[in-house]
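C-alpha cells help. Consider this.
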Amino acid sequence: MSAGYEVAVRAEAELGEGPTWDPVAGRLIWLDILGMRVHTYDPATGRRTVRTTEQHVGAVKPRAGGGLVLNLRDGVGLLDPDGTFRWLHHEPVAGRRANDAAVAPDGSLWAGTMRYDEARGGGTLTRLTGAGTAETVLSDVTVSNGTGWSPDGRLMYYIDTPTRRIDVFDHDAGRVRGRRPFVEIEEGAGFPDGLTVDADGCVWVALWDGGAVRRYTPGGVLDRVIPLPAPRTTACAFGGAGLTDLYVTTARTGLSAPHPLSGSLLVIPGAGQGLPQPAFQG
C-alpha cells in the first residue's frame, strides 16, 4: 500500500467536496460547493470538464439511466444526459443550503442540508426515491455530512460535523434505528467531514482542519492516518479502474493563508480496496 499522495487536479476550489467515482464513464466527479461548479476528471486520460450550476451544489451522483442527480440549495434536481434539468424535490428554505449526500444500497439518495450560519439543529437528512418521494430521516442536524453503508448494507455511518463523532445506525430496507457513537474525533485533530466505507468494512474519514484522512476498523479502532498538506480536507472516495485509489477533496474557504494545494483534488494511490457505489435509481 502507498502512504503518499499525488495531485490529481491542481485547483483553487473554494469548497471542494463530494468525490464520487462514475464507473460507466470511468471518471471521478467532484465539486466546488460555494463556487457552484461540478468537475469531472478521467485519470486514464487526464481529461477534465467543468460545469457551472445556478445554485450552491452540495453533492452530485450518477443516475442509473444516465445523467446526474444534484443536491442543490433549493432541493434535489435531475440532469439528463442531454443537459435538460428538472426538479425532483423542490423545497427552498431561506438561509439553508444542501451539503453532502450519498446513494444507499437500494438506490435511494440520502441528502443532507445545513444552514449557512451553521445554526444548531438547522439542517436535515432526507431520503429520496427516484419517484420523488421524500422522507426526513433526521430533523435536528447542524452540519449534515458524510454518510455511508457497510458492505452488507446492515449498518449506516453518519456524521453531523460539530458533534465530532461518526455515528452508526442499524439499517434495513431504507429505515434506520439504534443511533450510537462509532468513533469520536479527539480535540485538536480536526472535525469529521466526508466518509467512505471500503471492502473490508473499514470507515475512512476526511478531517476538516485536521489535514488528514483516517481509517477505522469495523470495531472502531483507528488503524491508519494519512497526513495531507491541505489543512481543510473535506471528503474521500475510492476510484480508478480497480477502486484502489483514494481521492480526497480539499477547501480554501476561511483560510487567511491557504496552502498552495488547498482547493485541489488529491489522490492516494493504492490506499485500499473500495466498494462499487450504486447509482441513483431515478
